[in-house]
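User: Let's play a game. I give you a shape written as tokens, and you guess the letters that built it. Ready? Here's round one.
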């Protein structure tokens, strides 16, 4: 069919033509927005899940919902080994602009505090040229959010921002993607600041997204984090939502799927959103005409898998060193020997991986730690690990 009209959108963070199966999260977030702007206590959302399930695009959709309500919003993507100050100040700068508070002097006051917060990054004795500026053209404030203690500084910063938003009866929402990659001090300060700010009823919220072990990261840093956030597990789509993700965009282009084609698509994709988009894209291009048939799906499958092998699996696999790859393969072979090797989403004991490699578990910790840091595997419970990428075990086994 006409590739120019192909509606599907495989790719990290690519907005899907139809955001299927996420109504519950969108509704829950609307309640959060309404309650917070009315100074009512409310837990913010944190989205967790494997790679490719649609956390980033859902986070973006939540952000749009906040923007539609007139909130000020900003977003950042955490990176390992990067401090919070700079990306957070850029995000907050954006949020203040979006909020559009009418009083210039009050806005400038808060912008000055954001700048002070950002510039504290360089250390107290930094030369002017080392001082990074978030593009804010008012002078940095002094004595506010610039103590150097990130926790104190964040509380002061959020308090001032909250005041600005409260004037308008609205709020400020900061979206943090890949939240598990924040440094320990930053996570802990962020939780503390959210805690503090929610107790004073100020309308500032942090909405996070990250890998499945994110709740463990947060609660290890602050035990009360479970009361700050409502964790929403973002998972593969159920059959009806997966069908909708394919049929709604097709209908928009006056095309359709036969019923057994949809069944074959679900069998192949397991309902994982990234796979749905990749298969949708491939089958559209290869099918001679609408409606798309089950034979079209079989013809397109190798194409879709080849795309995924490069764009989804390969790009991750390439980040691993030879030793780490050996470790990943050993994980895959343990996973395939389990009772239900179907999904590779389940965790395996690290001891079994060591067993397959015939090595002492301790000697493998460098490889394991590095894979954790690279975000290829995660550990939800002590002594067990799992792939962050769905179907990764199968990919590794097929690669031979
Ligand atoms: N609810 C959904 N319905 C249909 N497609 C989706 C949905 N969520 C995500 N996708 C698609 O899945 C892919 C991965 O989404 P992304 O947000 O990058 O996942 P994650 O951040 O969890 O790794 C993208 O191609 C996106 O268009
Ligand atoms: Mg993402």
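Assistant: Ready! My guess for every position:
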């Amino acid at each position: 069919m006409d590739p120019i009209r192909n509606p599907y959108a495989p790719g990290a963070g690519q907005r899907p033509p139809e955001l299927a199966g996420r109504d519950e999260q969108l509704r829950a977030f609307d309640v959060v927005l309404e309650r917070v702007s009315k100074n009512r206590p409310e837990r913010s959302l944190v989205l967790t899940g494997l790679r490719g399930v649609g956390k980033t695009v859902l986070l973006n959709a939540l952000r749009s919902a906040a923007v539609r309500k007139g909130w000020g919003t900003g977003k950042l993507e955490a990176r390992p080994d990067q401090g919070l100050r700079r990306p957070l100040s850029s995000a907050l700068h954006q949020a203040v602009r979006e909020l559009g508070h009418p009083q210039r002097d009050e806005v400038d006051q808060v912008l000055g505090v954001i700048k002070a917060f950002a510039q504290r990054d360089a250390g107290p004795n930094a030369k002017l040229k080392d001082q990074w500026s978030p593009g804010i053209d008012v002078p940095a404030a002094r004595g506010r959010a610039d103590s150097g203690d990130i926790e104190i500084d964040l509380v002061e910063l959020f308090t001032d921002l909250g005041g600005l938003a409260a004037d308008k009866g609205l709020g400020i929402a900061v979206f943090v993607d890949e939240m598990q990659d924040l440094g320990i001090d930053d996570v802990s300060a962020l939780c503390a600041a959210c805690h503090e700010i929610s107790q004073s009823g100020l309308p500032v919220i942090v909405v996070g997204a990250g890998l499945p072990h994110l709740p463990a990261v947060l609660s290890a840093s602050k035990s009360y984090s479970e009361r700050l956030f409502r964790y929403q597990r973002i998972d593969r789509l159920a059959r009806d939502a997966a069908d909708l993700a394919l049929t709604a965009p097709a209908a928009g282009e006056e095309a359709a799927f036969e019923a057994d084609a949809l069944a074959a698509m679900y069998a192949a994709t397991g309902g994982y959103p990234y796979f749905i988009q990749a298969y949708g894209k491939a089958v559209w291009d290869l099918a001679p005409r609408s409606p798309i048939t089950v034979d079209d799906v079989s013809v397109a499958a190798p194409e879709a898998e080849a795309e995924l092998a490069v764009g989804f699996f390969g790009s991750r696999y390439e980040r691993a060193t030879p030793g780490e790859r050996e470790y990943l393969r050993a994980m895959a072979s343990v996973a395939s020997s389990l009772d239900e090797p179907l999904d590779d989403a389940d965790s395996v004991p690290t001891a079994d991986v060591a067993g397959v490699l015939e090595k002492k578990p301790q000697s493998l910790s460098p490889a394991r730690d590095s894979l954790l840091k690279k975000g290829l595997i995660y550990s939800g419970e002590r002594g067990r690990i799992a792939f962050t990428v769905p179907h990764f075990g199968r990919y590794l086994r097929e690669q031979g």
